[in-house]
Every structure is written in C-alpha cells, then in structure tokens.
Amino acid sequence: MDDLRSLGFDVQIAADVTEAARLLSAVPADRRVALVDPRFVGHVHALRLGLTDPRFPAAAVPGALTAQPEARPALVRALSTAAAAAVGAGAPTGPGATTTTVTDRTVPGRLAVTMDAEGTAVQRPELGSLVAAVPVDESARTTAQSAVAAVDDEAVRLRSAVKAHDGFFTTFFISPYSRYIARWCARRGLTPNQVTTASLLTALIAAGSAATGTRGGYIAAGLLLLFSFVLDCTDGQLARYSLQYSTMGAWLDATFDRAKEYAYYAGLALGAARGGDDVWALALGAMVLQACRHVIDFSFNEANHDAVANSSPTAALSDRLDSVGWTVWLRRMIVLPIGERWAMIAVLTAVTTPRIVFYALLIGCAFAACYTTAGRLLRSLTRKAERTDRAARALADLADSGPIAQIVAVRGPRIRGAWSAPVIALVGAGALIAAALQQPFGSKQMIFAAVFYAICSGTAVARPLKGALDWLVPPIFRAAEYCTILALAARSDVPGALPAAFGLVSAVAYHHYDTVYRIRGGTGAPPQWLVRTIGGHEGRTLVVAVLAAVHTQHSAFTVALTALAVAVALVVLVESIRFWVSSGAPAVHDEGEPA
Predict the structure, then answer these.
(1) What average pLDDT is seen over the chain?
(2) CB 267 within 8 A of CB 499
(3) What does residue 10 show for φ and ψ, rounded to 5 degrees?
(4) Taking burial as the number of CB atoms within 10 A of a residue's CB, which of 164, 352, 457, 580 is the most buried?
(5) pLDDT tens-digit profile of 142-200?
(6) What is the 3 state secondary structure string of 14-73?
(7) What is the C-alpha to C-alpha distance for residues 568 and 565, in angstroms, rounded to an integer?
(8) CA–CA dist 239, 475 (Å, integer)
(9) Which pLDDT score is estimated for 271?
(10) How far, in Å, CA of 541 to CA of 485, rounded?
(11) Average confidence (pLDDT) over 557-564
(12) E strand or H helix at 574, and its extent?
C-alpha cells in the first residue's frame, strides 16, 4: 500500500468486485483509477510504469491495471463482466488518482483481457529485469521477494531514463552523467519543460556570447552551447525517469532545438560581422540545408511507417548491418545527429572562426543528406509497399499548398504516372531556382518563374500522394522556397537583405516544423485558414519574387522582407501557441530526431 501511496494514489479496500465498481463510480470522471491485487510483490518502478504513464488510456502489469478517464467506461463494463468470478476488490479516492486493490490475483489480468477484447487497447510495458508478480503461496512470495531484492530498482530506472538509440557523442560523453542530473531535478520537483526552457535560455546566452565577435566570447559560446546540449538531453531523461510525458513537452523540446540552433547561427553571423566578415549567406545556407534534411526524414517516415508490405532488400541489408556493432555507431555518426553536430559547432567556435564553422556544417550536413537520401531512394525503389490514405493525407499536409496550388489542383490537369508528382515538383522547383540564380536581380522573369512553379506545385498534388517517391514532394517544395529566398537576398546586394531573409526562412521553417509535430501528436495539420493566410509555399515564393522585382533600390527590399517575416512569424506563433496551450492531444514523448 505504501508503494501505491508513494506514487500519488490514495488506497481503499473493497470487500468484492461489486463494491469496487461502486467505489470506482464515485471517483470524479476526470481522474485515473487502478486495480491492484493486494498480494502484489514487485518493484515500485514496475508499478510506476504500469500505473502512472500518461501516454496510454489503459495499462497493466501482472496484478495491476489502470485506466485513465477515456478508458474508464471500458473498465466499468469489464468489471460487470467479471463480477461473478471475482472474490474481492477495493477502491481508493484521492487528488488526481485512485487505486483499487483486489484479493483475487486474476481479476486485474482478466479485466485487461476483457478490455482488449472489447476494443480498448491495454498497454503492457516492458519490465525487463523488474519484478511484478502475485504469488499464490508463501514459497512463491519468498521467491518473488528474493527476486525483488536481487535487482536494484533505482539503477534500472536510471538506465531506462536514457534513450535506447542515440548518437555516439550523446551516448558516451553526455548520458553517463546527465541521467544523474535528471534524477537531481526529479527529486527537487523540477519538470522536463522547465529544464527545456533552461536549455533554451542557455543557448540564447551562448548565441549572445558568439555575437560579441571576440575570442573570449567564442570560447564562452562553445562551452555554453555544450551545457545547453547537456540540459537538452536531461529534459528527455527526466521525462522518462519520472514518466512526465506530455504533448506540450514534446513540442517544446523539438521546437526549442530548432530555435537554439538557428539563434546560434545568427549569433555567429553577427559576431563575424563585427570582425568584418559577412557570413550571413553561409548561416542561411546551413539553416536551409538542415531544415531540408529534416523534412526528408519526416516525409519518408510519414509515407512509410504504416505502409502495407513495407520491406525491401535495402532495408534487409540495413538490418543485417545493425547486427555488427561498429557499423551501427559509424552509421549514426556520419548522419551528423544533433549531438555530434553541436559538439562540432561548439569546438570549432572556440578555436576557429564563424566562417570555418559554417563551412564544416555545410560540408558535413551535405554529406549526411546525400547518404540518408540515397538510402531512402533505394528503399523506395526496391520495396513494393501500398501507402495508406492517412500517409497520403500527411504528405499533402506537409506539402503546405496555398490557395494558388489548391485551385490548380482542383481545376488543372491531373497527370498520371508512378513518378509524376515528384517529377513535376522538381521541374517547377528547378525552373524557379535557376531563375533566381541566373536572372538579374529585379528581373520580371522571376515573377513568371514563380507563377510556373505555383502551377507545377498544384499539378503535383492534384492526385493522392501514394507513389513510391511521392514523399519527395514536400522536401522539393521546401528546398524551392528556402533556396529562392536565399538566392534573391544574396544577389540583391542590398544591405540587411540576408539577415531579413534569415528571419523570413526561420518563421516559415517554424511553421513547417509545427505542422510535423501536430501530425506526430495525432492532432492533424494546422487549420486551412492559417495556411491560406500565410499563402502556402507557392504563394510566399511568388510574393518574394514580386518584392524583388518591385523593390530594387536602396533598403526597400530589406524592409519588405522584414515586414513579411514579422507578419508570418506573428500569425504562425500566435496560432501555434494558442493550439498547443489548449490542445487536448494525448500525451506523447518525442524521442528526438536523428539529425
């Protein structure tokens, strides 16, 4: 009983299942309830995993069953079904949680089976070496108690706080001590969201230090960036250690990662400018490349994670390589995940110059992008998977098509062909980027290229994106929009145009990341009014092309880009914050991106 109370439960005893059902019905509808056999023997962390994880409506371990508000009707029905067979039960009430203990050890397990059979999924967490048992006699109880004593509950909890699949740098240089920081935070009542915010503030201070443009500032920036990454690892480990998972937390963790990295790029660019070196184009290029890498990951995963017959010789080869230890670490390192990337940035900031930092980033990320994209292309071409309607919907949402593309998709031609969507998107994007690079700045031809791109964009998404390579469509659109803004700003020779373009791409990229996290959180894409208001990718590209053609003198182009960036940022931030603060999405925990 004390173990249950330590987990925040109030415990009451009922004489039978009928009384248990009555006591459970008296618990407020917005609270979790649980049933635990009084003969339960096991680790506290086994009960914690089974009874307190907020991600699952219902969960069970041997001898214990829990139901959150959405699963309580199913539990009540299961109790009615099992009432004749149950010997006894009990139910507690208390702030935020309720537990019922049952004297028949088979009751929680049978209730879980009944709930599963009726369509309510019951999560059964992997316990590993942890013990959860209901002994039938004293001999079995003694054996179970000996098994509990043989395993260090806290050591298992600490190990499980570390992400199972992480990068080399994080695994061997951060996690060995950050898990203890996570435990320290848990014992002082700190939440993962508070640690995430501390990581963001530390990174912003690091960016400010880099912006000084002095060697001391660069050294401080590198050290602070590494400490920010330690805190970034700690927040996830704290969430796993204390089972404090939330949709808001996953969103903050992922969004702040991007904010930290891009703010640091800006700090490096400002610091370089103080020393007379303009690296804004490199900073924007690094951000564009990194954002495109991520959208490739997102699109490929969304297109294939629920596909039917989802296998290929390339995937089989990858699985075989995973059985060879050193290849696993090598393959994780060469994709330059966030740990390796931030370590490289921090060290190079301290000992070299911002220009060298960005050169290293561009080379490393370009190689990683080629490696991962080539593997995904091979998998897509060699597998015979059937994409689902959900996957096609997700890709359409990731495409971020605005009013122009939507009109073309409805009223324009529908070109058939297995690869028609990515080919059409690539033709439009190629024409757009070529015009931005080759046409004189301010040329009216750029507007025609943007119109052609908008038409191609609508044609590409006119049919459901279920083809083998249709996951390439959103990345192509991202590359087209971001690279066009970069090229026009770089070729304008207008003071401040590149920093303004950096701000615009940051605002748009935030919107695209926000779309991904909404889809992952099971809440769907942003509302259509938001996409229409900010124009969609093709609408924004056309606006930037028009601005470049109209504002060719002095600082007008910079002012126009800045105004557009501020407008987009305000609209997407206000709607995003409103949504996530009020979202009723189920709790999730984002394990983090490999890159």
Answers:
(1) 89
(2) no
(3) -100, 140
(4) 457
(5) 999 999 999 999 999 999 999 878 889 999 999 999 999 999 999 999 999 999 999 99
(6) CCCHHHHHHHHHCCCCCCEEEEECCCCEECHHHHHHHHCCCCCCEEEECCEEEECHHHHH
(7) 5
(8) 31
(9) 98
(10) 8
(11) 95
(12) helix 556-582
Q: How far apart are CA 306 and CA 314, in angstroms?
A: 18
Sequence-distant (≥ 6) Cβ neighbours of residue 537 within 8 angstroms: 399, 400, 401, 402, 405, 457, 477, 478, 480, 481
Task: Give the 3-state secondary structure of 291-351.
Answer: HHHHHHHHHHHHHHCCCECCCCHHHHHHHHHHCCHHHHHHHHHHCCCHHHHHHHHHHHHHH
Least confident of 140-154, 524-538, 578-592: 578-592
- Give the tokens for residue 390: 């959900």
Q: Cα-atom radius of gyration of the chain, to the nearest Å?
A: 27
- Which pLDDT score is estimated for 423? 96
SS3 content of the chain, % helix, strand, coil (to 5): 65, 5, 25
CB atoms within 10 A of CB 71: 22
pLDDT digits (tens, 9 = 90+) for 457-489: 999 999 999 999 999 999 999 999 999 999 999
Amino acid residing at 38:
P
Among candidate residues 213, 203, 174, the one with its CA nearest the CA of residue 261: 203
The encoded tokens of residue 82 equal 């099992």
Per this entry, what is the length of the chain?
595
Taking residue 490's Cβ as centre, other Cβ atoms within 10 Å add up to 18
Task: Give the integer Cα–Cα distance in Å for 234 and 237.
Answer: 5
Encode pLDDT of 36-63 as tens digits: 988 899 999 999 999 999 999 999 999 9
Q: How far is CA 228 from CA 70, 178, 198, 502, 513, in A?
A: 37, 12, 8, 23, 21
Which one-letter amino acid corresponds to residue 423? V
**Separation of alpha carbons 267 and 275, rounded Å:** 13
Largest pairwise CA distance in the chain: 89
For residue 374, how many other CB atoms are within 10 A of its CB? Answer: 11
